[in-house]
Design brief:
Elements lengths: L1 H11 L4 H12 L2 E3 L2 E4 L21 H15 L3 E4 L6 E4 L2 E4 L9 E4 L13 H6 L3 E5 L2 E5 L11 H8 L2 H9 L6 E4 L8 H7 L3 E5 L3 H13 L3 E5 L7 H6 L3 E6 L6 H8 L6 E6 L9 H7 L6 E10 L3 H24 L10 E12 L2 E10 L6
Parallel strand pairs: 2-3, 9-10, 9-13, 10-12, 11-12, 13-14
Antiparallel strand pairs: 1-2, 3-6, 4-5, 7-8, 14-16, 15-16
Helix pairs in contact: 1-3, 5-7, 10-11, 11-12
Amino acid sequence: MDRAIVLWKAQHEPCTAETLSFLKTLQKSYVVYGDMLLLPSTAYATGPTHGQHHESLGMQPEGQDKLYATIATQMKITHIATTRPIPLSSQDGQYTRDNVLRSPSGFQPLHGDFGPSACADPPTVEDFNAAYWVTAKQNGIYQTWAPRWTMFSRGNVSEKARVLTLPSVLSAVADNEARGCAAVDLYAGIGYFTFSYLKAGVSKVLCWDLNPWSTEGLMRGAKANKWKAEKVDDASMADLARWCEDDDVRALVFNDDNTKAGQVIEDFRSSLPPIRHVNCGLLPTSKGSWETAVQVLDDGYDGWLHVHENFAVVEIAEKAEEVRKEMEELVAERTVSRYGQGSVERRLVKVAHVNRLKSYAPGVMHCVLDIYIPKYAPS
């Protein structure tokens, strides 16, 4: 980056104070994923758009284009963009809608062909093939996504690494030597945590996500890691029992609402390895998935839920206990409904660990709670 800026400045001196400030910001903060470089959005007063330029940078449009081209050449990359945090909601005319697909509306291409800016709903195979896809490697795992259409959260890298060596994951893998164990990822995205479970030795992960671009990225990432994955839709439901029993199929991917996960798993539980872990990775709260998470755990084995939440730093201990109590109530309700009131012993749910992952906002921490749920032991 330094060399690119030196070369560009040599051809465009003298530079205005605004330009020098902009260049200094670029040198301080950028990230490279595969052949794509992301520049910091803080360098721009407003988000730049492809083919548009900002006088506030103190340079002419052709100068900006030349700068990005020089950076691409010197950094040996093909694409440059900038992005902003994923908004939790979007404006549609007079209405504000939740951004349930976590679409990266702040993503702005600056250099290179990122594919069409519009697609069918739902996207077609042709849309997928026309898009630009980038692949990055973290913790020895490939992850693939289309940056125009789906998010990539680099801040989760430490949590993904933690899952790889988490004692509760490794012990569950070792406990079930015959067919191993299974996990469920209720907000799978492009496979952030799904792939960590698979690399740690979990036999099969069942994945749910609403964003078709994310599930397509998950499928492409699984292929890059040489893990066999099958995408399940209405047309392939007849194949699901066979895929559940096929030990070569490591991931089952559902582009669907995760509220349907409970019934799907109940219908095919006998064909699956025991489900020991459930990942609930949605911010600012994953509470909408808790009942399903409790339902899909295998009652005959100790299990763990990995619950992502945003907590005020001063309230972490208090909020973690509130989550534990709610989970214990859900476990009690499920146990009573399944086995009857008279034969149920109290299953004591515990917070095994609170991982303070990263700051989400001033005074707010993204935490992951490892919730331990003991197996059902009839009296």
